[in-house]
Amino acid sequence: MPSPIYVFDAYGTLFDVHAAIRRFASGPDAERMSEIWRGKQLEYSWTLTLAGRYEEFWTLTERALDYALERVPVVDKTLKPKLMNAYYSLDAFPDARTTLKALKARGARTGILSNGSPAMLKGAVDAAKLGGELDEVLSVDAVKMFKPRMEVYRLVTDAFKCRRAEVVFVSSNRWDIMGATTFGFRCAWVNRAKLPPEYGANCTTIPDLAALPDLVLN
Question: Which residue in 183, 124, 175 sits closest to 158, CA to CA?
């Protein structure tokens, strides 16, 4: 019987995308700026993919930050270099490493599938000391398009040499869950913020990563 395969989205799922701003600023303005930054980062990835274009996620992250800082001018623009560098060492969620270790202890194979560029992902994985718990770290850079394109999810089945139904895909992003479900993965949505479901994709919902090792999926 093949080993179970768990593949994780990186940003927002294993790594806290709002950790960067919290290191240097606080309050509602900083939170709003971080939300805009994240929203534009994703919007740019979707728009470029729809237009048949590709630029590294690092570039999109910087453009999104520039926009967010203009939208929320009360946040000090001189923080930009520090905020960008923070993406190489984003805080992992407290239950990320323990969850990966628990899955590995049960014989699972594990990986990341992310919009992040290889350098961004290496930095975050190394900083969080997660490398020993991961069999694969897959970047969309290999296919030069972003999620939720089906070609991106195929990177997983190619890397693990498995069938789609053998993969449990884990993400905090509901649009990502929609894409992975459409591709044929079994999915677990990490709904930390207790948001309502979207996109009509059926999946199992969990409140955090700690619930994953004992989860029974159909």
Answer: 183
Q: Which of 9, 16, 141, 176 is catalytic?
A: 9
- Domains along the sequence of the chain with CATH: 5-16+90-211 (3.40.50.1000), 19-88 (1.10.150.240)
Using DSSP bridges, classify how beta strands 204-206 and 136-139 pair: parallel, antiparallel or unpaired. unpaired
The residue ranges of the chain whose pLDDT is under 50 are none
**Token reading at 215:** 């989860």
Concerning whether 9 is annotated as a catalytic residue, the answer is yes
In angstroms, what CA-CA distances link 87 with 9, 64, 156, 181? Answer: 15, 13, 24, 28
pLDDT at 6: 98
Specify the amino acid at residue 187.
C
Residue pointed to by tokens 């520090």? 82
The predicted structure's pLDDT at residue 123? 96
Dihedral through CA 116, CA 120, CA 123, CA 128, nearest 10?
-30
Q: Cα separation of 11 and 146, whole Å?
A: 13
